[in-house]
Records
---
Amino acid sequence: MAKAVTSANLDQYAQDFAATPAAPALQKAVMNNGILKVAENTASKVAMTPTFSVELDTGAVANQKQSGRCWMFAALNTMRHSIQAQFKIKDFELSQNFTFFWDKFEKSNYFYENIIATADQPTDSRKVAFLLTTPQQDGGQWDMLTALIDKYGIVPKSVMPETYSSSKSSELNATLNLKLRKDAVALRKLVNDGASADDLAATKSKFLSEDYRILAYTLGNPPTKFDFEYRDDDKEYHRDADLTPKSFYDKYIGWDLDQYQSIIQAPTADKPYNHLYTVEMLGNVVGGREVRHLNLSVEDFKAAAIKQLQAGKSVWFGSDVGKESDRQLGILDTNIYDQDGLFNTSFQMTKAERLDYGQSLMTHAMVLTGVDLVDGQPTKWKVENSWGDKVGEKGYFVASDDWFDNYVYQVVINKKFLSDELNDVIKKEYDHPTLLAPWDPMGALA
């Protein structure tokens, strides 16, 4: 039987508060300054000095502005690093708006297909409710970006620059989600009324044409052919004519994206290590590359990232950036705030507990560009963010190794930096990975 809080309980709680050491002084400090300011630990600022034994020169940071495209910025940043070095183009950027356009378009089609597939379920079923909660959004994962590049290629930022809606996406998201929910009503009715496959396809095609128009108005027309002009760091002029997005990718980036593997660090009981996982209804390009996560122990997870950095290659990663972090200082550290000491209690949970109980999941993607190794062990990591150069050290952050252990959930690693045994797991399980529910935390979009 449920028990109410009694007046005797309240008297006891008030006595406990009064007996807490320094309670009046702490109460005044927190009331006037807030929790985090009072709990801030100065020692963390000293420990997180931005000096690293392994450090890549990656140039100025990008700025996603008021959009949720961090996963896209982080992935394109890893690619532009190699372009900058190979072609000597300082602070070059790839077009985040180009991939944004095609991601929105493909997510619309992906949503329609899932709506059709679940049309026999009531709208309050968990899967249909999940789909309708957010028909599409800005976020994504590495495999979703590679699916876009495989299909559409990529272009320089100069060819398809930012627009109002790419930099501030809330109006576009609200408009497109309204449209998709309205279309879902019609598609579900057609299915349940026994419409033919041809009628369904024609209706969906009409809806997609309208979606394309919305995206073209807000983001511009994605180029199909263009000239690439630039001056390199030696002031030499270059012009490359009649490129397509695919030929530009092949010539200026040329990565075999099949060689890059998403690695997750999820120490929950339902995900044994050294196995491959996918997430139901997670993706964007129908028929394109699907999400595949290899789950590793935190030791193997970090070792792979270090190998890639030591080889001079940056690392895309996904984390819960809002936890134990100071945005302005650019510090990500489990010791940055001492809330346990401030409130005389414990807020400690294991990484697995935080995932299982909804306290944490991946919220933001960034790029690892350095690591500080002491006696062969990592102590802190250099992080390239995409929030512009007004935060952190000109846009770069420092993450403690303990923060990495607790709040980093995904890295993308070239398979050559993985063991033969792990590559065998990927090959054997790729076509039949363990299927996770759509709402699994490893399906969170950065």
---
Amino acid sequence: MLERAQTVRLMIFDVDGVMTDGSLYYTDAGEEMKAFNSLDGHGLKMLKQSGVQLAIITGRQSKLVEHRARNLGIDHLIQGAHDKRASFEALLDKLGFTADQCGYMGDDVIDLPVMRRAHFAIAVPDSPTVVRQHAHYVTGARGGHGAVREACEVIMQAQGTLDAQLAAYLA
């Protein structure tokens, strides 16, 4: 698993069930709301600072995901991806990466085509069994509750960059 994490140059995340707990909240006006974990957000920022590019591929379309991605400095955002594998392949072509340089973190069967193609596939513990079976790593933390942070730290640990990212806070 750590050998796979060492090769990640582009880490791609799903949103619902990974960056959030998967709950969908709607106001009376029909506006969608999601809760994001701040620890996850800082993990993403550290992973990016360590030299790994970040992307989101999500099947849903949401302005608030656009805002979250911008806030975290995630430059590559694909929303409304009904065929996540096609979106994954298009992203690789655009950025010049191979699947062997990519990681993907998902939580449901719609993520399996990308998880099976990416070199380092990560799932959350509340994913269906079939999804966990195709993951190279299953986080201990649940989606929306530190799973993304854990995944980021695993990658940085494998690449030897975690200590450098934490050094400023330990000085």
---
Amino acid sequence: MPKQFIALLFFSLLLISTLFAQQFNQQPQHAIPLPEFSLPDTAGVVHSISEWQGKIIVINLWATWCPPCLQEIPEFIQIQAEYADQNVQFIGIAIDEPELVNDYISFININYPILIATTEGGKLSQRLGNTMSAIPFTAIVNQQQEIM
């Protein structure tokens, strides 16, 4: 009897924890407003994120020293080409030194804007919803300027 009781207790706790986890994960996520920010591009020209207002914006934070970041860029180039006429705009934000970014993009044909965020990149990443402060990080912004 004690073995059956322990097994029943174990499976009951497992069932309760599974149901709790499902309930926790099914709570609706709330969109957060896109913060206003401005960053220079690779030529030093400052751009405000509001330049792309009204578009579906895919913001990707990356760095030249990050292998997973570099692996996903060719896919982003392809997706940008496929969906540009559907009001989708990719924006790459390099958390890196401008010289390193310019070296990298000199041999890859990126078809979307690349902005440079050196020291302020980590804080911007958090403001965009990156709770882990890890890169690569991608945020999707709807046409109402909400991060989904």
---
Amino acid sequence: MLKLLRPVVTRVLTPLGRALIRRGISPDMVTAAGTLGTVAAALFFYPRGELFPGSLVITFFVLADLLDGVMARMTGPGSVWGAFLDSTLDRVGDAGIFSGLVMWFVVSGQRTLAGVALFCLVAGAVVSYVKARAEGLGLSCDVGLAERPERLVMVLVSAGLGGLGVPYILAAGLWLLAAASAFTVVQRLLHVRRQAVSTSPRPLR
């Protein structure tokens, strides 16, 4: 669903990306700055219970994940290092967001939700790992109900609305995200298994 919005967001971010490139700022620098800002904001605002301002600031930095892609396409076909760095720092950013929520839940005595947020973090990492490992074996794994953009929207919207005082929205959002992430793990495993059993066995390192 969110992939349909990518062309619109690309058109909006293109002038900014072009201006940054003219000033000698590389896509890798934007990726690193976005991740640093995301982690810093999550660990500063969320443990203090400032969920709404924290979600706004994090959303601003998360947009860097789209901006660096726009800039990379402007400067060429992209690099292996840039793709690797972007994927790696995505995991760091996710860890910062959910770690901040876990700390808030522990401080406020919401131990069950702390466990759910931790499960969302682990399940999200497994979702990404399954795809990376499958593609490393020459298989495709471009499926999934809850990919990273959907997961980010769910957690940031529910946290932001929860910070505004909307009752039960944060708990509902996290439980829904946990279920969607678990479903996506199974969905990707089955997708990869169907490909694996239909191909001729080959030696693996």
